Amino acid sequence: MDVTFPSSITQVLLIEDSSQIGHARRTAQKLAEQLGFDEADAGRVALVVTELCSNILKHASHGELHLRPLPRPDGQGMEAIAVDRGQGFDVHACLADGYSTGGTQGIGLGAISRMAEVFDVHADSRGAVVLARFFRRGDKAPDLAVGVTQHSLHNDPACGDAFYVSITDAGISALMIDGLGHGEHAEQAARAGVQAFALAPFASPALLLDDLHRAMIGSRGGAVAIAQFDAAADCLQFIGIGNIGGSLLSPERGRGLASHPGIVGGQFRKAQSFDYAQVSGNCLILYSDGLQSRWNLHDYPGLIFRHPAVIASVLHRDFCRGRDDVTVLVIHLELPHA
Q1: Which residue among 20, 33, 168, 193 has its CA within the 20 to 30 Å range from the CA of 45?
Q2: Are residues 114 and 174 in the same domain?
Q3: What is the pTM of this model?
């Protein structure tokens, strides 16, 4: 299996009244069609998105729908995530057939869980995040345990953050770049680094950092983090320059990933990579400094067992600073099944 997750901004639709449900349905259906879904599968996406948005209004009065393309081994899938700050709901009750979160005759989360190829939910007193992933007809490849949410400051079409994830049968290599500042020039710096990384994502982290540095000279430069998971060795190599945050989490403990000071494309002292052993089953989280660093996933009971896309969306919802571009990348360090 060989799949790459290139950088892309999450499309955010505000859901604040019933008139916006139709727009969300049409937007999601159009995206599905653009990604190669046939009429029946695009209609399935539209039906699920309608229910997700209706549920936001029923139990939270307002929230957001997040849409993004989903890279697949052969083509594209699609992801829809409903995010709110309501009082949550009883997940087990809502998954029962015939149960609607608002007491109406909606199709309910139980039906959504069967209509989507991937479904997951986290709900507590802070709110709810509901994930639905859709694959095109005939796509039988397993889901990839990668989740990301990326947002530019003030919905600027240019984003100074960038990421790139490459997954093979041998392991995972992930990059995150935060170009200095935000806007077009920050985006140019980040893209230069991504292009260099994509040429050989499984080269040694130290060599990759040198390649990125050369590619980003003449730009604003930026912060960089590279993480490589070797499944055969059950270890993670990490190298970082600047203020991109990194954590390795298990249900029992968390480990911070150490970075060096400096600016890639500008000036930094020679950096070393760090090795972390016995990481299979851990959750790797990389995030730009648009996200606050004082979060603790263990404050959310059960969240570490949820899908990486749900984890990323919860962290963005509750800890986005709102003063910069923000990206949260979450990867469960387990090889995909062939």
Answers
A1: 168
A2: no
A3: 0.94
Q: Are residue 94 and residue 152 in the same domain, yes or no?
A: no
Residues 171 and 229 in one domain: yes
Average pLDDT across the chain, whole number: 92
80 part of a folded domain: yes
Same domain as 315, residue 218: yes
Which of 106, 134, 162 terminates a domain? The answer is 134
Q: Are residues 184 and 285 in the same domain?
A: yes
Asked if 94 and 153 sit in the same domain, the reply is: no
pLDDT, residue 90, reads 58
Residue 124: partners with Cβ closer than 8 Å, 6 or more residues away: 88, 300, 301
* 86 and 203 part of one domain: no
